């Protein structure tokens, strides 16, 4: 990856670039079509009611608590800051675009940010000699966001692809 997602400045630049790209593509006919198709998919197969609250707790609140306690646990603040910048950027982008543009753009935002977040976590794992608590955090977040990506692919992307391929 050409972008150093372990660096707060690079992560912020990526977040701003993604927000700009999403603002641009959200005004295209393609996202309108995807929104209609995904709305039907989501209505026919909605997420479990605990899905989003679980991700808020595990993916956002737990890292914030760890960040606040990072001096106690000796977790490198760089790791948590960069992670939280990317996650906060996703939340901001979704809050700005999903209410006005619909679930279709939310699907795209979630998938792209999850890919970058997984890349970021894997980079941290590969390049840092981590303490036990850092390893636990990184492995937990990779599992959580890896499952999220798998869920997106299985329950949103594949059904969307089938509709596009078989229904033209």
Report what the structure shows.
With 168 residues, the chain is mainly α. It has one domain (8-18, 59-167). Helices cover 85% and strands 0% of the residues. The protein is built from 7 helices and no strands. The mean pLDDT is 84.
Approximate helicity band? over 70%
Alpha-beta content class: mainly alpha
Give the oligomeric state. single chain
Tally of strands: 0
The low-pLDDT segments are none
Number of distinct helices: 7
**Which range does the strand content fall in?**
under 5%
Strand/helix succession: HHHHHHH
**Distance between the first and last residues' Cα:** 34 Å
The main β sheet shows up as: none
> What gross morphology would you assign?
globular
**Count of domains:** 1
Radius of gyration computed on alpha carbons: 17 Å
Report the average pLDDT across residues: 84
Main attributes of the structure:
mainly alpha; 7 helices; 168 residues
Chain-wise SSE layout:
Elements: H1 8-25, H2 29-44, H3 51-68, H4 70-73, H5 77-101, H6 103-127, H7 132-167
Helix pairs in contact: 1-5, 2-6, 2-7, 3-5, 3-7, 5-6, 6-7
Summarize the structure.
This protein is mostly helical. The chain has seven helices and no strands. It starts with 7 loop residues before the first helix and ends with a helix.
């Amino acid at each position: 990856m050409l972008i150093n997602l372990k660096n707060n400045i690079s992560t912020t630049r990526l977040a701003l670039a993604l927000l700009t790209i999403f603002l641009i593509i959200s005004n295209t006919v393609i996202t309108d079509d995807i929104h209609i198709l995904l709305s039907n998919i989501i209505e026919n197969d909605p997420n479990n009611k605990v899905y989003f609250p679980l991700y808020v707790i595990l993916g956002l609140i737990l890292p914030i608590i760890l960040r606040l306690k990072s001096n106690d646990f000796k977790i490198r603040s760089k790791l948590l800051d960069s992670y939280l910048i990317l996650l906060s950027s996703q939340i901001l982008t979704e809050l700005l675009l999903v209410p006005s543009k619909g679930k279709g753009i939310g699907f795209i935002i979630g998938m792209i940010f999850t890919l970058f977040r997984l890349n970021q976590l894997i980079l941290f794992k590969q390049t840092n000699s981590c303490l036990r608590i850092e390893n636990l955090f990184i492995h937990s977040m990779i599992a959580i966001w890896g499952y999220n990506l798998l869920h997106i692919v299985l329950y949103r992307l594949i059904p969307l692809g089938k509709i596009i391929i078989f229904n033209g």
